[in-house]
Write a structure and sequence with these properties.
This protein has two domains: about 60 residues, 2-Layer Sandwich (Histidine-containing Protein, Chain: A), CATH 3.30.1340; about 60 residues, Histidine-containing Protein, Chain: A (2-Layer Sandwich), CATH 3.30.1340. The chain is about 40% helix and about 25% strand. It has five helices and eight strands, in the order ααββαββαββαββ. Strand 5 and strand 6 form a beta hairpin. The longest helix has 19 residues. About 15% of the residues are buried. It comes from Chryseobacterium piscicola. InterPro entries: BON_dom. Keywords: Signal.
């Protein structure tokens, strides 16, 4: 019996000695490892205090935030991860404005008015009715008068006068 107690005490002493010999990872070392986890997200940050990772800042989406938390928990020596990070609000999509679109009937009207000027092209560029080509100064005056008389709205005169 005495021998059994002695063996038990000896086993406990050996186990305590082996536990106390384990090297404790410092917060500075953990901070270095944790910082490399969040470097891919410049708007996020992590701070290690007493082996606990405190995650803050913003992430573009939930999956990238979850991935960072998983990687932080996988670091040997991190006891827990406190998640204080947020997800960026998605940007509202602006509706496409069709007000700048040119009515094909208006475009045809201008083409018909300029049929005597074969070097002038009528096209829609960036949602605006645009006239391109090469004309003389006299032709440019006549074209401007003809288009203005149609009262079709905004027209960009982008032709070259020679």
């Amino acid at each position: 019996m005495k021998k059994t107690i002695t063996m038990a005490v000896l086993a406990m002493a050996v186990s305590f000695a082996s536990v106390s010999c384990k090297k404790k990872v410092s917060d500075a070392d953990l901070q270095t490892q944790a910082t490399t986890v969040v470097t891919s997200t410049p708007t996020a940050a992590v701070e290690i205090k007493e082996g606990v990772a405190h995650l803050s800042g913003t992430f573009p989406d939930q999956s990238s935030k979850d991935a960072a938390i998983t990687q932080l928990k996988a670091i040997k020596g991190v006891k827990d991860v406190h998640d204080m990070a947020k997800i960026e609000a998605p940007m509202a999509t602006m509706p496409v404005e069709n007000a700048s679109m040119v009515d094909p009937a208006v475009q045809q009207k201008v083409k018909d008015a300029l049929k005597d000027f074969p070097t002038v092209n009528v096209e829609v560029v960036n949602g605006e009715l645009t006239l391109t080509g090469n004309v003389s100064s006299a032709q440019a005056r006549k074209i401007k008068e003809s288009v203005d008389a149609l009262k079709v709205g905004k027209v960009k005169f982008n032709y070259t006068v020679k």
